[in-house]
Amino acid sequence: MEILSDHSQDVSVPDDRAEQRTCLICGDRATGLHYGIISCEGCKGFFKRSICNKRVYRCSRDKNCVMSRKQRNRCQYCRLLKCLQMGMNRKAIREDGMPGGRNKSIGPVQISEEEIERIMSGQEFEEEANHWSNHGDSDHSSPGNRASESNQPSPGSTLSSSRSVELNGFMAFREQYMGMSVPPHYQYIPHLFSYSAHSPLLPPQARSLDPQSYSLIHQLVSAEDLEPLGTPMLIEDGYAVTQAELFALLCRLADELLFRQIAWIKKLPFFCELSIKDYTCLLSSTWQELILLSSLTVYSKQIFGELADVTAKYSPSDEELHRFSDEGMEVIERLIYLYHKFHQLKVSNEEYACMKAINFLNQGFH
């Protein structure tokens, strides 16, 4: 599964000119004309995410925070406000947030203070939603449409450090953070407890299949462990999660997800026909996709519900927030987008089992 990047409605600036240009929002080095104005990749991505996801931010100060490369992540409200004031054109952004064709005719726009206020307060988004609802387009808005969001980092932002590209990359990540000075195993968040949630997958649908196909699909479904994850992810209200505790939770969760994929592979009807070399090659090249697919379907309630509640109780420091890149936020936004798309598909047990097996065997396409 490939997470796409957005390059719509932007025009690159030649290298000799780019060095002389600075972003009109934060002063960082500009990379081109994005949504009508000269800006950097960071502000371009931030503006797109804010508009596509219909974000409503809050400023904890007096709505005139300084915007610079180092301080731009401190106040999302003032950053979006400056994007609008400088003329970033929200009409140039595709509603689904996905890549589209370039349009060099798109230029900066001047909008009234009243319209800016409607956008910042969310009123403009509500009016647009009502318009599309009245016209019967219930699936028009992009996933991630939320009514309000405080000026805090996205709960999912703490997950960005777990990205890696190979199996040994995951193990290196695990060792790096499990080596932190925290108590062993899982006593460091005693306020966490487990909850037996039902699998969100749908029961098999009645359809005509030849006996051989039916038998294979039944074996694939039987190989999957549909029991809820054993890692406790419910937490008491009012408990403040630390960075060490959160990383320990993520590492334990990643361990369990990975081990479940290994157990699943060993239960496949054709596992005995795989050589050690083929098994290792297939696992090392597909484990990320297997975990992602499981997280989007079987364990979605726990990953996007219970785990999100835990991460919401972690408040990073300004220094930690500065280290978190706009690219990392982009990954989180794409993950949420995928979750909503899979939720709309209403995947059944049969479909999930087949998708997972196909993904595992198609390692040559990764």
Automatic annotation (TrEMBL):
Residues 212-366 form the NR LBD domain. Residues 20-95 form the Nuclear receptor domain. Residues 128-140 have a biased composition (Basic and acidic residues). Residues 150-162 have a biased composition (Low complexity). GO terms for molecular function: DNA-binding transcription factor activity; sequence-specific DNA binding; zinc ion binding. This is Nuclear receptor subfamily 6 group a member 1. Residues 94-113, 125-162 are annotated as: Disordered. Keywords: DNA-binding, Metal-binding, Nucleus, Receptor, Transcription, Transcription regulation, Ubl conjugation, Zinc, Zinc-finger. It is found in: Nucleus.
